[in-house]
Every structure is written in structure tokens, then in C-alpha cells.
Amino acid sequence: MAISVYSEIGRLRVVLAHTPGREVDRMPPSMMEDLLFDDILHGPRARAEHRRMCAVMEGFGVEVLDLAVLLAEALEAAPEGRAALLEAVAAQEGCEPALLEQLRAMAPGRLAEALVEGIEVLPPAARPEHLFELPPLPNLLFSRDAQVALGSGLVIANMRRRARRREPLLARFVFRHHPRWRETPVVLDLLGGEREGAYPMAPQPSLEGGDVLVLREGVVVCGVSERTMERAVDRLVDALRGDARLHTLVMVPMPRTRAAMHLDTIFTRTAEDQCLVYGPMIVGPGPETLSAIRIDLRDPNDWGRRCPSLLAALRAVGVELEPILCGGRDDYIAQAREQWTDGANCFALAPGLVLLYQRNDRTAEQLARAGYHVLDESELPFDPETGACRYSFQPGKRYAVLLPGEELSRARGGPRCMTMPLEREPV
Q1: Whole-model pTM above 0.85?
Q2: What domains appear along the chain, each with residue ranges and CATH number?
Q3: What are the mean pLDDT values of the chain's consecutive 10-residue runs (427 residues total)?
Q4: What is the DSSP annotation of 165-181?
Q5: Which residues are catalytic?
């Protein structure tokens, strides 16, 4: 299977996701901060909400692939690569030799579970400060971040926080060894090193997928955020120079805050001529308005021209977007509250067809005013045998489908955070 992602809005055909499993159920309050959560999730409810999102995508004919399933299949298909992967995990996590041997002895399916769900310390050895031999990966549900499908190739990310650094190791293994992606070109591997399973001891610059938007063919937008370093964006620019299908990278320096941890928490695209934004940072002018740096990838000596805003930078390269304001207009508190619950983090299944959380009422009102027919997920009829969506979507009409997300939103990520497109149709 070839990766093909040249826009944020082309008709979605294949997407990577991960329904949260026991790794979420195992998260103790004492580890919340280390694992980058603000609260303890109720696993069954989070799974039910995530499955509804996947069902909506599948109902529109999208193939939804679970990363944990793909990992088990890749481990089965490539026994020769397992040892190197486990050595890299052990080096990263500081595993004891006995634990490494335990992992080596596991069958592929059980090993995939252990690498995602973690391995608990058994009584009587368990202590409040030592509950896991191998920590769980509750952030794996945010499948956007560990890799980026960019054009026909892949960028392997490097995560800023320790709790997530195993994720790109697993992603790299899947895309190197799973039979569907063995031939996929790697645009940039920010883990460093070409040796199979290599995990660098020296720090590498971090870049996460939530900060990278393939806005349309030719234009990539990248945030420099709490999670993505400018040095990593520089390396991405170098890697993309010479690609005939790309001409511009727009870099957006952002505040290092948890509220805006990635660019896609304040800016996502909804249609060919529209985007959903957190107004104070994207629209301006105002004290929070972010400037942007426009880089010509065709000129090896160009390292950027500063523009007063992201929308101005995009306008300069022929991308004219009408901003739809997350949280509504002229009410800063409502805007900030709905941005916190991922009101700006929508995910497009096709041009003008987006997924969003139900709880962001004022954002839904703004979408309706911008010409979107707002539908609750529960209103969509599905064929009981095929699972296909039987709602009659009218050509040329725009839709916003509201998903249940009371539990998932507490994990601080929206529909785009939880999805990584692998194939979209051209726009």
C-alpha cells in the first residue's frame, strides 16, 4: 500500500487510529503528570466514544487501522527485527536484563500488548514509586503524533516528553516491517540512525505530528511549539527541499503552553476555502496573534520571510482561507474554554465534511453560520449488515458531524489528534 497525503481535506480512504485499551485503565493518579494527563479517564466510556468515531469513519467508506494490531502483525512478519526493537526499547526505558529476556520470549501478539499496555510490578515488589517494569503508553490514542504521512513518504517523529518516546520506535518498526508498508520512503527519521531499531543516546530535536499540516499540494505548515523544536523544523525543511511537488513551508512560532501544545489545537482546515481557528492567536490583530515565517523550499538559500499572521503567509502563496472562530466571536472566555476542549481540532473526511466534539456548542454555532449543516452522530443511520452510513449527503453541501467526547476530551486531544491519514484522494 502506498501512502498518499497531499492535503488536509482530500477524501479520506485509509486512516491510522488506536482505540484506548488497558494502557488507559492502568494509569494511576500518581503517574498522571508523568504520563501527560490532567485526569484519570474512565476506560470503558473512552473506548465507546472512540469506537463511535471509528464507526462514523468506516460508515463513510474509510479503512480504519489500529496501530496496536499493526504492531502485532509486523512483529509476526519480521521476527528478525524484534531483537533490535527490544534493544532500543530497553535502552530507552532502562530495562533490567531479566525484563528484556521476558520480552524476547513473548509471542508477537503478547509482545505487542506488553509494549503498548506496559508490564506491572507484581506484589510484593510493587511500591507506590515503582508500579511498572515497563510503563504503559496511554497517549497512543493520539495516533497523529509519532509519525507524519507527508506526500508519498513518512516522517518518523521524535517526541518531546519521555512518556511518549517509545511511540515513534513502534511506529518506525511498523512502517519498516509490516507487509503493507515495507517500500514506503522515509522523508526524515528524527530518531536518528539508520541501523534497525537504533535509539540515540544523544538528545535529538523533537517534532510531533500535531504540529505538521500538509495544507495542500505544495504547502506544508509546521508549528514550533511546546512539543516541536525549531531545529527539527530546520531539518524537515532540508529534507523537503528538492521535492518537485512542494514549494513552501510555513513555520509558526507558538507559545510554550499546554493549552496550545500543537498547532492543530489552534488551526485545522475544514474545506478548500475555510479553516477552523482559535481567533486570538490566528486572526488578530491582538496581543496573542502569532506571526509566521514563509520559506521557499525551491530556493536552497531561503530561510524565511516573516508575515504578520499564518493566514497572511498562506495568502501570499495563493491559499485564501476564511477563518471560522472556535468558541464564537467577541467572547474571549468562551473561545478559551472551547479551545481547551479541542474546539479548533476538527478532522476532515472530505472537503466540507468534518468531525468535531459535541461539547463545543459555540463552535458548532459558528460552523452553522458559515454554511455547515450540523449533525449529531446519533442522527446518522447505518446499515446494520455492512455498517455503511445511509445518510443522504448532498453534493456541494457542507457538514459538521458532532461526536461524543466527554471522556476523550479530558485527555486533551480532539478528532485530528486521534487520527493519522495514510491515504487521501487528490483535491
Answers
A1: yes
A2: 12-424 (3.75.10.10)
A3: 94 97 92 86 94 94 97 96 94 93 97 97 81 94 97 95 94 96 93 61 85 96 96 96 93 92 97 97 92 96 94 96 96 96 97 97 98 96 88 93 94 95 97
A4: THHHHHHHHHHHHSTTT
A5: 417
